[in-house]
């Protein structure tokens, strides 16, 4: 992922600053625009393919959520930007999908970038950039492709559940961000399970070298999630503190709530970070314990049989005159001695708790 | 625990913000309400089952402590909230048991969330969320279930020990919190014992792989305790600094005392943290020492007997012409040589301090 | 590199402060001066060999970029400094190539030092110091030798791409710095690849001691890059915050953009830092795993054959009376016993998962 | 120690806040009060057993140092507190010997708690709490038991050495604290010696498991000393900064001097901390080196004699037709071969620097 | 060194604060005073043995540098202090050679303490305390003994090189400090070499236990240098920020230059610190690699020859009926089998990359 992101950033070397260049995956995706337009007694939902069709929603007296999927359609985004009066740097940031979460306040809108995190079917974290423009009575959202974490928001608007239909665009932005942060909990929860699985695995004595890779992959995931989430705290805190006519002071309580959630997520990430970092130590000691066990087997076998073999060797010598060889019971006496030695060894190792 | 908490948070994905949903264990618990109503010359203690019965205590001229157990009774809590004029977000936070310790100041009450920590019979740390509402002459407390750390407070109110009966609700809140923090000392004390036990265990040479698990479990306990206690420092410090008509300046001295205690607890936690973290190193070196010992036994046995066996092998060869075989005392001379070699080896290993 | 830098600094011991002494590589390099002089409708590009030829560009009404290569030509730089009214300390800093990135604001110009980082053909990071003087309508830049990261800037000026021809010198400085920072992304991207390669290498079981050197070299590279980039954040942040008549407030938006990029680069560096630091642990566990494997082979071989050899030794003894020797099928029975022992051993090691 | 302190704190669970309960060792100690009363021309020294006898010293026009030993005499301390007008919380803190170093400023006195550290005969650090009350012309000091670090102060007062007899109570407090801090130097010096001894021990190859315990004990000592000393910096810094009529501005210079000393002590503690923490690494590598040595001996012995034994085994076989057995010089040739092999092995191991 | 410093500090226990006691090496050193007295057209250099001879230089209209060597001559220093009106605490600090770098501003002079660092012939770092008094037109400097880093300053004054003869005493102090800091670069450069040497040593496979000591010694050196240099940053920064009539604002630019250098030195120290700290890891892995190599040799030898020896042992048995013994070519067939086994083993180990 780190690799991918850099490769994208790299593509821009030498480009003119302020130019709107999509830095994501170039495979052509359909432009898909979704509009929710509502107030306490009206509600309209539309799927569109042309940005021009959204222009009317800017000035009507309903709250509008215009959700655009397909950042590769740079032309359409530029047209939209022109109509909604967006600064070129904003447009550049929307299509450059390697932004850090940030907030930029302009005269008549607020620009927000953040990362949507969710697990795909194969337990890989998907990190997708979402940009929001909060205007007086509309929220524009920009996503790389279809598929997001906003289904509960759509349902709530459709069914008029909760306060959303009676509130303004600032509240709409809040519930959108709240949905994103809910999924953060989901992501770190899964991370927690993965760490515990790995822990159990190591504890049960799995010392395969693949553990190394698993630990590292988890480390990278945590660093990645961390980088998506930590800067967001500052963003939210700025929303809370800043006086903008676009965000009503009553709505700010809700943003404070988001902030509390983010702090909680951050704390969990840091705890997981510590746990995963110390997994390596646990792994190391487990390997050493295994080796200890191996060494004990070797030492016990060698310590018992090498001396006995030596004794057998003695009486295999061909000296003309070895008196013991000619006594009748020598052989049996020797067996006795050897068995005693054997037992003594066993007792010794038992005492040392190696057996 | 981390796992459990996340699972709970997860349940809320997609729920409408501001809705009062109990996130704890769903097994039905009885609603149990306890009321202490007192001033310097009156005292009343009551057990109730209906919240409505507590409404009269809001306005009387005594100090009232209304202690509600059973957060699953969301309806009752909402009724209470309505009567005591609590904000919906406050109610939501009361029943969401995965809050960070925090303080929210409202017009006519202060809302506090913190964690009660104590050991159950099996030496497991129980972390239970307690929420307090401090009003002009009452304290509401909300607990998940019966069983808490407030028995000494109850006794003191009943018996009129100390200042409690002559002071206002702010002082009542103080002694409730003081009880909680007293138990923090208890918890970290037990953590300290556990660390020392583990230390002794390792030092005495126990290198079982279960040590790994014990160390990790202790680490997790410390992280958990830390997360419950550290944010509280800021909470108390805000009580101290903030000018609220609900907390008399004379009472603030007592809160400063709590603050001092919290700092002490925090320092101890950090010390234990360091001790437990470095246990892993100690464990590692102990394993290595053990292995060293094993290797020494092997090396001594092998180094002594392999050369001797070689010598015996030599005279077991069947060459037609080996002159030594035919001397009369060869065999005895050989024994002499071998014993000398043996002794030389012993001396060598003795010198190396391997014996 | 650290060694080299210090050696240079060392050369100055005892020198008079404020004296202009070039601390870089003394091999004589040609003085090479490049001038770009332009406004929205004019454009002039010149290559010069004498500083005196640049003096006219100071006062004309175009934006001029005077790019001087060859810091060993101290005399020429002093002449230039005199004409452009530069402070002696500034000149000293320009030719002392071991500066930290910094900004010094003077009455009628701003002095900036930073580090250009790029990979040469052999994947070595080249760090070259660039100093900028931003005057009212000119930018002076000073490089140690030819070869830099500004080709895209040259093209843009030549072709009038983007805003550059319509903007002032402060914007020119911005695009120059932007080019430098674009290359920072490039450098850390390559660092990222190197770390991943090393990681794969270790994971695949390469435990050669050279890994040690590779890890250390990467560590040093990261420390070096870090030292070049981190102080720059403060520099840019000061440009943003400071009120200078030399930098228009509209241009400051662009500097904020650079600042965002720098934060991104810094975060990546810190992530790579963590990854490379923990590589050592991974390497350690891989070595231990290898050793474990070696030990297992040894233990299996020894545990199987040492007892068998002992048995063979027994029946090689020359006692006069060993009854087994004279039974007809002894030899075959013995083989049977030995094969059974062998198989039992194999099963035992299979169970222990050593095979 | 951590264990002990907690046990004490534990005893207080459930006690009424503000109650004066001695938390130290309950064995009965004699109350012992010492009074030094002096000005530039008078001097009086008294030993008393009843606090009532000290009451006259409060108001006379000399500087009085009233030093009370025996915190278990709670009644006497409460009487003293009443006469000197001390707040109940102050009295509670005086007898609760698990205080963090702190300063509390009251209307007409300053209350200071700090830790006296010194080594007893057996090289154990003794940490004893000392509380000071600085009044207009008196200093009260409270110690758990007799025996302290103030002998040089006593001498100085007796003999009128230095400035003490011409200065006020604030200076007396200063020289008392200065004595305490002088002993801090002593304590960390001894810690330094202990670390170096341990270092030498490890370096000389002592890899006994007891080293583990020694390192841990030193770690704990350092953490303990650290906890006693670090909060004091803030205390002194508050004396310096605060405007109190009790401390003359000319005396503040002296407190700044103490502050400088404390910083020095703190720096040393942190250095020792680092040194002791990294001792574990040194210990680990030393163990590994030892093991390496052991392994080499084993490998050399085994590698030399196992092949030779094999050769001897070959010619111990009883095949009917082994031609070599019947050559006359076979035996001697074989010896030659074996000696050559032996020497070759030695050379090989020499080359590998294992010998 | 740490040991030495503490020992010195220890000597002072119980001494009266403010008393001027030399804490350094008591061996008697000659008092040696050097005076440089100059302005833009006059210059005088003198060597003196009595402090009284320097008194005239206080009030003349030249800039005077009075450099006193021999801190054991406490009487002379006290006389000088009296004449130059120095505070007793200043005198105490001058002769107490275990000061942290610090600055104290007095009415009519500034008192500065810092550490001179340089390598002696045997590559040991010498740390010597230098104190400066900056008066209106003089600089007093105090050194423990002759030999310092100021020769270039002397030359510059003598020869009138640079600005020194035209500037005031504040500039003189600057070039003195600049000389000291130049040597800091020298010291850390040498530290850098030492680290690299050690690194190369370890990399080339030197795993002697002495490496442990070398690493530790370097760590201590770095900690020591760090402690001498880091507090100086604050000192210089206070000179820069403070408004003193003794330091002209034009001279402050030069102090900012020193500050930049100090930051650079500090950064290098921290980098070296990291490098040296991670050397231990490298050492550890190198040891483990060595051990791995040893184990491989052992395993290969044992794995090849133990089975072969077993086979030879089989045919050394004395059973009456072993059919193979009587076939004519058995012996040669056996050799064939053994050689095949041997080769198979070699191939196996080759495949495992152990050969």
Automatic annotation (TrEMBL), chains A, B, C, D, E:
Signal peptide stretch? none
Q: Name one GO molecular function term.
A: cobalt ion binding
Keywords (A to Z) from UniProt: Cell membrane, Ion transport, Magnesium, Membrane, Transmembrane, Transmembrane helix, Transport
Pfam families in the record = CorA
A Gene Ontology term for the protein's cellular component: plasma membrane
| NCBIfam families the record matches | corA
Q: What does this protein do?
A: Mediates influx of magnesium ions.
Q: This chain belongs to which protein, by name?
A: Magnesium transport protein CorA
Give the species: Siansivirga zeaxanthinifaciens CC-SAMT-1
Source taxonomy lineage?
Bacteria, Pseudomonadati, Bacteroidota, Flavobacteriia, Flavobacteriales
What is the name of the gene encoding this protein? corA
């Amino acid at each position: 992922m780190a690799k991918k992101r850099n490769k994208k950033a790299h593509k821009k070397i030498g480009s003119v600053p302020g130019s709107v260049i999509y830095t994501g995956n170039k495979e052509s995706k359909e432009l898909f625009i979704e509009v929710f337009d509502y107030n306490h007694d009206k509600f309209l939902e539309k799927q569109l393919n042309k940005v021009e069709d959204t222009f009317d929603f800017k000035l009507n007296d309903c709250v509008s959520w215009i959700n655009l999927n397909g950042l590769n359609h740079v032309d359409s985004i530029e047209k939209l930007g022109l109509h909604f009066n967006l600064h070129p740097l904003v447009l550049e940031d929307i299509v450059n999908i390697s932004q850090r979460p940030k907030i930029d306040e302009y005269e008549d809108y607020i620009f927000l970038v953040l990362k949507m995190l969710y697990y795909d079917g194969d337990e890989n974290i998907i990190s997708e950039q979402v940009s929001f423009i909060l205007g007086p009575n509309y929220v524009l959202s920009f996503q790389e492709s279809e598929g997001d974490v906003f289904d509960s928001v759509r349902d709530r608007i459709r069914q008029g559940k909760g306060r959303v239909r009676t509130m303004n665009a600032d509240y709409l932005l809040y519930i959108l961000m709240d949905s994103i942060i809910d999924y953060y909990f989901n992501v770190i929860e899964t991370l927690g399970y993965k760490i515990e699985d790995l822990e159990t695995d190591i504890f049960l004595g799995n010392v395969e070298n693949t553990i190394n890779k698993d630990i590292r992959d988890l480390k990278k995931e945590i660093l990645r999630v961390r980088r998506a989430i930590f800067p967001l705290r500052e963003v939210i805190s700025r929303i809370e503190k800043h006086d903008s006519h676009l965000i009503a002071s009553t709505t700010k309580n809700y943003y404070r709530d988001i902030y509390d959630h983010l702090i909680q997520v951050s704390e969990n990430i840091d705890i997981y970070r510590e746990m995963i970092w110390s997994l390596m130590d646990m792994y190391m000691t487990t390997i050493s314990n295994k080796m200890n066990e191996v060494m004990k087997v070797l030492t016990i076998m060698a310590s018992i049989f090498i001396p006995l073999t030596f004794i057998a060797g003695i009486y295999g010598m061909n000296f003309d005159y070895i008196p013991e060889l000619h006594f009748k019971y020598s052989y049996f006496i020797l067996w006795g001695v050897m068995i005693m030695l054997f037992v003594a060894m066993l007792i010794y190792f038992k005492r040392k708790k190696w057996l």
